[in-house]
Amino acid sequence: MIRFEGVLKAYGSLEVVKKLDLHVLEGEFLVLIGPSGCGKTTTLKMINRLIEPTSGKILVNGQNIMEMNPVTLRRKIGYVIQQIGLFPNMTIMDNVDLVPRLLGWDREKRINRVYELLELVGMDPEVYANRYPNELSGGQQQRIGVLRALAAGPSIILMDEPFGALDPITRENLQDELKNLQSKLNKTIVFVTHDMDEAMKLADRIAIMKDGEIIQLGSPESILRNPSDDFVLEFIGKHRVNSCELEKVESIMKTNPVTTDPDRKGTEMLALMKRKGVNTVLVVKNDKQLIGVVTIEKLDNKQNLTYKAEYLADTGLPVITAGSPAREAFDLLVSQKLEYLPVVDQNRGLLGLVTRTSMVNALASVVWGEEELS
Amino acid sequence: MSAVFSIALEHLWLSVAGVFLACVIGVPMGIVILKIRVLAGPVMGVIDILQTIPSLAMLALVMFFFGLGNMSLITALFIYALLPVVRNTFIGLTGVKSELLEAGKGMGMTGWQLLWQVQLPIALPVILAGFRVAVVTSIGIATIGTLIGAGGLGEPIWRGIQLVNTPMILSGAVPAALLAIIADYSLGLLEKSVVSRGLQVKNTN
Q: How many domains does chain A have?
């Protein structure tokens, strides 16, 4: 889709991009990441000729861009910048349909396109189409910025730290939306950032750059698993240890859940819960085999107190098998709104329990590092 | 009364004619020095110097070339109006945020499209402010045009001074002042109606 062949960009004797070879695949989300001054933005801007290479070739769809008219080239490539850059004198409508207008689409087609795009990001066209950028929040403005890049249906989109100036919550939302859009529209996206979290979240492949060179190129997971050198290791920083993506569920489970024999009565279980300070007990047969779970709500009923555990136990609860990624446990907890998730071996033997608390602890250790957690 | 009215109208015409010429020449000049940036310093320097010439001296100098009459006055007003028009055009255009230019260029706008669709509309309030200053000062300066044989409200004022005739002075001075106030006010309204609403709304963030 986009191919860099020995691309060099120098300002005087300073080489900001050195003999770069890179092939961006069709439909891929490629993130260029690195410290400031590493040449990532220069690399991006060479694709739409806002910066022209000193030597080497850049091919878009097999065509050398230096042989194309820059204006024609740019109209075929979506472009989103950090400062958003919506035109304050134009309505949202006029901002979004700028490139279609430059391309001479007829008016009706343009209006339909703008409406369709606004609906795509959940902004009511009747409300927003005729507003001005200054009447929108920063997050809404950058949504429009992204739509503007999509308007003429380019197959390539370049994004230069598009969410860098937004507050963390808005940034997170927009990342989710972009990911979502990408899965629907399947564009080839080249995205520049210096935020590793963002890169991990969005990228199909990450190119880590330093001093004008790509140090490592690969999927987020392969970079995490095999950082090529100390620089990469340092750059991926907090992601390198305890990444939930890589961990197994055993490493985050509690190993001593409160259990009971199947023939204990309700009253005894209530006493057990009180003593241990929990509100669920797992019912296990032969000290190992998981039957089900009894919650305190079940015991909030005089009649039930006289029944045995094996009759009270809810046997239909979801479980997770040892060896599954921790991520899966997390997804289950969240999607099914569970409080806990027993971890079992192949024979349904109970090994432990993942609770929301243990999950949060595991996540916290990823975010803040293990040493700070007692 | 109708005599005063027609003199006032003539006065307005003379003032606006000078400013109008300054706009016709000055706005493109502002664009040229934006595009060819090395010219900005010298051009602004010359216009600045022209502006410092006292108005009476300017009229006398212009008279050498165009003789007595309205033509000389219009030329002098044109020279005075150049500074606010060119300067505000230049400042307004350079004030457009660079990210807007980058976004526009990156999306495939040509230089002219950027100028017409982005830079000029955004610079318009500043350009109009320059125009407004130019009109109001021209109305003032035009009152001494009578000294080089031009028409307008200067005539009753100067004659009134020589005859020590206060009503006659006022019959020129009051309309001249009113003219300036009305011109300023109506140009303010014009600005509101031609500047994009997007540039007038308060930023709600």
A: 2
Q: Do A99 and B108 touch (CB under 8 A)?
A: yes
**Which of A49, A50, A81, A89 is best to mutate for the B interface (most B CBs within 10 A)?**
A89
Would you tell me which residues 30-49 of chain A have a C-beta closer than 8 angstroms to some C-beta of chain B? 45, 48
The alpha carbon of A204 is separated from its chain's Cα centroid by a whole number of angstroms, namely 10
Contact A89 B100 (CB under 8 A): no
- From residue A374, alpha-carbon distances to A357, A370, B71 in Å are 14, 8, 90
pLDDT for res B203: 54
Q: Please give the share of chain A, as a percent, with pLDDT higher than 90.
A: 48
- Closest approach of A175 to chain B, Cα-based (Å): 21
Do A234 and A269 share a domain, yes or no? no
Residue A351 belongs to some domain of the structure: yes
User: Which residue range is the domain that position A114 belongs to?
Assistant: 2-239
Residue after which a domain boundary falls, among A239, A271, A300: A239
Q: What is the pLDDT of residue A246?
A: 55
> What's B69's DSSP letter?
S
Q: How far is A90 from chain B (nearest CA, A)?
A: 7
Q: Angle at the Cα of B63 (from B58 to B65), degrees rounded to 5? A: 110
> What is the 3-state secondary structure of chain A?
CEEEEEEEEEECCEEEEEEEEEEECCCCEEEEECCCCCCHHHHHHHHCCCCCCCEEEEEECCEEHHHCCHHHHHHCEEEEECCCCCCCCCCHHHHHCHHHHHCCCCHHHHHHHHHHHHHHCCCCHHHHCCCCHHHCCHHHHHHHHHHHHHCCCCCEEEEECCCCCCCHHHHHHHHHHHHHHHHHHCCEEEEEECCHHHHHHHCCEEEEEECCEEEEEECHHHHHHCCCCHHHHHHHHHHCCCCCCCCEHHHHCECCCCEECCCCEHHHHHHHHHHHCCCEEEEEECCCEEEEEEEHHHHCCCCHHHCEHHHHCECCCCCEECCCEHHHHHHHHHHCCCCEEEEECCCCEEEEEEEHHHHHHHHHHHHHCHHHCC
Q: Does A148 touch chain B (CB under 8 A)?
A: yes
Q: Using CB atoms within 10 Å of the CB of residue B94, give its burial: 0 to 12 exposed, 13 to 18 middle, 19+ buried.
A: middle
Chains A and B form CB pairs within 8 A to the count of 85
Going from the C-alpha of A164 to that of each of A77, A79, A88, A227, A242, the distances in angstroms are 21, 15, 20, 25, 26
How far apart are the C-alpha atoms of A313 and A302, rounded to whole Å? 16
Is there a single domain that holds both residue A77 and residue A214? yes
| B2-193 classified as CATH 1.10.3720.10 | yes
How high does pLDDT run on average in chain B? 92
What ipTM does the predicted assembly reach? 0.85
End-of-domain residue from the set A216, A239, A262:
A239
Rounded average pLDDT over A76-90? 94
pLDDT at site B186: 94
Residue A313: what pLDDT? 83
CB–CB of A90 and B198 under 8 A? yes
